[in-house]
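Q: Joint fold for the lines below.
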Amino acid sequence: MKIAIIGGGSVGLLCAYYLSLDHDVTVVTRRQEQAAAIQSEGIRLYKGGEEFSADCSADTRINSDFDLLVVTVKQHQLQSVFPSLERIRKTNILFLQNGMGHIHNLKDWHVGHSIYVGIVEHGAVRKSDTAVDHTGLGAIKWSAFDAESDRLNILFQHNHSDFPICYETDWYRLLTGKLIVNACINPLTALLQVKNGDLLTTPAYLAFMKLVFQEACRILRLENEEEAWERVQAVCRLTKENRSSMLVDVIEGRQTEADAIIGYLLKEASLHGIDAVHLAFLYGSIKALERNTNKVF
Amino acid sequence: MKIAIIGGGSVGLLCAYYLSLDHDVTVVTRRQEQAAAIQSEGIRLYKGGEEFSADCSADTRINSDFDLLVVTVKQHQLQSVFPSLERIRKTNILFLQNGMGHIHNLKDWHVGHSIYVGIVEHGAVRKSDTAVDHTGLGAIKWSAFDAESDRLNILFQHNHSDFPICYETDWYRLLTGKLIVNACINPLTALLQVKNGDLLTTPAYLAFMKLVFQEACRILRLENEEEAWERVQAVCRLTKENRSSMLVDVIEGRQTEADAIIGYLLKEASLHGIDAVHLAFLYGSIKALERNTNKVF
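A: Joint structure:
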């Protein structure tokens, strides 16, 4: 099966390594330099102190040869990928972005491709243009967004036990389930500059997170609030020593995923006339922090 | 009358200029360099495009010669001033700090001085070690904290029309009236990096500020909430183009007055078992911003 991975970040390299064990994989990168390195060296994966490697093709362009494209670039980089995807023949495309900002784009994107969306629950850190550290074993969960699900089910048979690929029936439930966790944990840890576990151990922070949670729940119309709140707290506990991706982005002066995570919620709140006072404040503060870190202010 | 102004910042230089028109004023500075400059050049004041000057003494030590000391250093610098004040003979001391963090200190400070507290409603920007720009005409309002008020009333007769000094009967009412305004405007503008007026024009920010206001009101046991909320909004309107002092401190990488303003409220909340979820979050976020700006994190 011919698969293209769009994006050579941590998730892109992780997917490329594991999928190349069963499929013919090409990594499509923005930089020629990275494509050349992957083409000549393949991809290395570190896991539990061991090193593994896999051969991979690489390119800087997307062509029409693939049975499946896996889009792993961040949500704010999607706009530069869409035009290329509109030029190729109809195929299967799986979007693996954090947050749900891309959902508003995909709803308006009528191109005839079979579209799937998914979430990544692995921990992965890119070490170089060709190497990735698989720091946390998890899963990829996917669902049909605008497609027949059985087509991709066939593609994803026989995958590696450290890289399970799980089908879920309801894309909205799948994505909102992760979004509510990210919306609660990421902006707060980024603004307070604390580890995930500190949101549980400082009572005022936990109470503030609950206010954010309630706002996000109303916007997403989640069915089982109590279960979702338990899950938010469970993730804080399980990742208590971790710095959230948004905190790391802020520290390293990178653009955060505030638009993908909070931006989506604010847009939905505005569409349905729902109050989002805490989320609007968090969004404004994270955006100010991005400007400040980048010395534009 | 012999008056010492402790601190050569914007408020110190402003007080020194105006009080020296009627009194024998000495500015006490931390740096020898600034004391020498004031001693030789006097103080220049800019106002409405004009320049004024006044002769002033200066020193780096506080001695026992003064009828009144006006302490103008910031609240977080007070700890280095207290020991000197404990060594001199009993006199009148007026504390002009922002916020109320120093109130907890003063309550435990039993030294026999006649203690007064006040607020500064002037706009002033220090231009150099000896020059200050009087950017906004206002008033100094003061009240007896642990003293007979009539003693200072006599000292403050005959002052300049651009520098009114007004007596208020209730120090708690005076200080909390300013604190509630600072607590609402300063942390929010610093985190969102917006001008004061933007807190009114963005509905979600106004609603968030209201939540902060309600928390602070409960902690301070303010009598007339509605009037106080009107005043907060009036200050936002009147200073709509201004950047709050906390925002400027954050931008310039200085320590903010978060302890003096929010720290006092959190301590009071904790003493009386009152929830302060929003204030605790704002405090944590401002402190993180201070660390971040100072590159300690």
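Q: Anything notable?
A: Chain A touches chain B through 27 residues (CB under 8 Å). The first strand of chain A starts at residue 2 and ends at 6.
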